[in-house]
Amino acid sequence: MGRYIARRLFQLIPVFFGATFLIFAMVYAIPGDPIQALAGDRQISPSTVQALREKYNLNDPLPIQYAKYMGNLFQGDLGESLRGRDVTEIIRQKFPVSLRLALLAFAFEAIIGMAAGLLAAIFHRSFLDMLVLVSTTAVISIPVFVLGFMTQLILGVELDLLPIAGIQDGWRSYILPASVLAAVSLAYIARLLRTSLIENLRADYVRTARAKGLPQGRVIGRHALRNSLIPVVTYLAVDLGGLMGGAIVTEGIFNLPGIGNEIFRAVQNQDGNIVVGIVTALIIIFLLMSLIADLLYAWLDPRIRYD
Amino acid sequence: MRKHFAVCSLLLCSLLIAGCGDDNDSTAAKDAAFSLAIVEPKHLTPPLTNESEGSQVLMALFSPLVEYDTITSEPTNLMAESIELSDEKVWTITIKDGWTFHNGEPVTAASFVNAWNYTAHGSNAANNAHFFERIAGYDDVQCATDADQKCIADPTAETLSGLEVLDDHTFRVTLKDPFSQFPLTLGYNAFYPLPTVAFEDMQAYEKAPIGNGPFEMDGEWRHDEYIRVTRYENYAGTPAKAEAVEFRIYTDMATAYREVQAGNLDISKDIPPEVFEKVPEEFGDRYIFRDGSIFNWISFPLYDERFANPDLRRAISMAIDRDTITREIFSGTRSPARSLISPVVFGARKNPCGQACEYHPEEAKALFDKAGGFEGTFTLWYSSGSSHDLWIEAVGNYLRQNLGITDIKYRALPFAEYLEKRKTKGITGPFRAGWIMDYPSPQSYLEPLFTYHAWPPDGTNDSFYRNPAVDQLIREGNAAATLDQAIAKYQQAEDLILADMPVIPAFFRQSSLVHSKRIENAAIDAFDRIRVSQVEVIG
Hints:
The structure holds two protein chains of two kinds.
Chain A: H1 2-29, H2 34-39, H3 46-55, H4 62-73, H5 87-122, H6 127-141, H7 144-158, H8 171-201, H9 204-211, H10 216-245, H11 248-254, H12 259-268, H13 272-300
Helix pairs in contact in A: 1-13, 5-6, 5-8, 5-10, 5-13, 6-8, 7-8, 7-11, 8-10, 8-11, 9-10, 10-13, 11-12, 12-13
Chain B: H1 2-20, E1 33-38, H2 52-61, E2 66-68, E3 75-77, E4 80-87, E5 90-95, H3 109-120, H4 138-141, E6 144-145, E7 151-153, E8 163-167, E9 170-174, H5 182-185, H6 196-200, H7 202-207, E10 215-217, E11 226-231, E12 244-249, H8 253-262, E13 267-269, H9 273-276, H10 279-283, E14 287-299, H11 310-318, H12 322-329, E15 334-336, H13 361-370, E16 378-383, H14 389-403, E17 408-413, H15 415-423, E18 431-435, H16 443-450, H17 468-479, H18 483-500, E19 503-515, E20 519-520, E21 536-537
Parallel strand pairs in B: 1-12, 16-17
Antiparallel strand pairs in B: 2-3, 4-5, 5-9, 6-7, 8-9, 10-11, 11-12, 13-19, 14-18, 14-19, 15-19, 20-21
Helix pairs in contact in B: 11-13, 16-17, 17-18
């Protein structure tokens, strides 16, 4: 077990180098001059262009730029954005926001999604089941920004229940955006769990458990549910990273200073240092989450072993 | 194995709790404070700030030599006691006594001269360096360049030879060439004074800039969240009416608008066209709009021979219905342009373009045929991501309908790539362009866009238009002795340009704001800035 984890952690190293280089190369390949774009339609003096190009190593070929970046990285320096801000500082400011948003959304989708799936499966073909099916279909088919505007208008402007933008009200600020962000994944999880649980409840080993006279709760909780959770865990693990980096629309609507919009803006401005810094951190989160998911499989299903 | 799971969930929980800790830092609301929505500024120092959002904040923190009237944009001296022309290109500027920076340092002639020297010097990589290009000695503080505008030698001087401190309150500015509009330019960001502390570490200074304006920073700039300022009690000018202002930073102005609706925000500008129709009805006199200075047009790549005939360019202009486009696509948040100079500028005329900028589909077709029509693919270019697609497509439809051009294509590029193509003659059809004035002078709309010496790579005349008569008239306007004489020359130049029609004027953007019931006297100036020091909190 320990060796398995060590091996997996060791694999992070080449992935880390490969991924950073790829991202670096992609930002490098975007056509257009980021320095000129800084000035917009206006004129910018040749001295200014020259000084900025030197500062950001933009005159060097790609491998040299990458080597310089990596050299600084190992001294704990993620470089500066084109607007002159420390990338470390940007990450320190924005990661907590995205993390809170993602974790709250994660909690919503895990708890509500699983509860809905569980109920729908147990009361298969009942009114409750139909309700879950219809409402999840509705949520999946409504675009996120429509959902965002609707909740803002109804819960924020009309009923004045919750803040609709910014993070100044602490956790309360995250409730609306996290629910909107969680909505689609929540629907998927409910449906995933429902399908897989309905199938498992028909399996031989469940019939055996029932025949042994186990109470219903134990049959479902210990036997059927645990096995049915594997696809859900897989989905959840991949989703956390997506919730953090992919919340561009939600962050925009609810005005959260998170990393989604930061990456979006940085790509538009060809601000390589920001893109590489944030995306690398996201990759590490993805990799760690998938490691956790793999370890959970073994706990959920004793047939799976890592040795 | 179960242990691992427990550890993991513990980890998640502790993250959640750690996240909770630093949240409740919202300060107690001040009675006479109001909030205002902005987009994250790119920079917050006079040498670097060159866009509207940074300008909005700097305006609260700094006071310029010359300020512009909110409505008419007419310049009056603010920090300047007098600005006198002593020789045809030598200006003597005297500043008022008793002004201080927020840290108590007196504002002197040196505060201006040092700031300008810093910005102009090539090694400081300031965006606003080129604002000093008219001052003698500018070329020596910038690098020497080759034909492609690449640096080949370092600057040879440390300071501008044209700037000279005479005493604590007087300094002299010597220009390279006579420039009648010089005092008008001094309200721009680049010309604010800087305190000594700024030069020690400009990057640290930017976190909480110290200025000489009606408000001072309250804490540091919280990027993508807010910038808070409080009234500077030792301000030597007219004191601000409100005690404090919070500039709240939004990524999406539609959200800011809903915040005003919900009563969480006091002022929001740049109302999105999609909600615009309901605004006048819902906000009544709490909705304010005015003509703005942002100009949008369609440029012709004059280096492409297919667009060499002025009749063809005029025909294209007459085939486009500007009124319908501004009404239907922009819900009236733009006004049709029939001039090159924004209506907010003194010296602007309503319709110097005449028939050529009006919608005359039949004449357009006749002129188009007379000019020999158009062969091949007609490509309309624009920059992606700023919702230009709708109106550019409308233009394409008018051309297809009225001129019978069948093979019309659209090409949208990301902004950086788009700019590069424009500068390097890489465009193969009419292309969208925009401009916002730096100071309220017709010259600001003409010289950078239509003169030969403003050709890329070092200029912004990217239609590559050249008319020696226009160059001469603008030179004469710059050298004119009085403002009226200057304006007459600029207007003649505008007429010549419009007759050649290197660009088709499309529309001017209007500035607008909505505000809450808590405040009054919210006004927006020609630079799309809200005059924060005039705003009064009443509720």
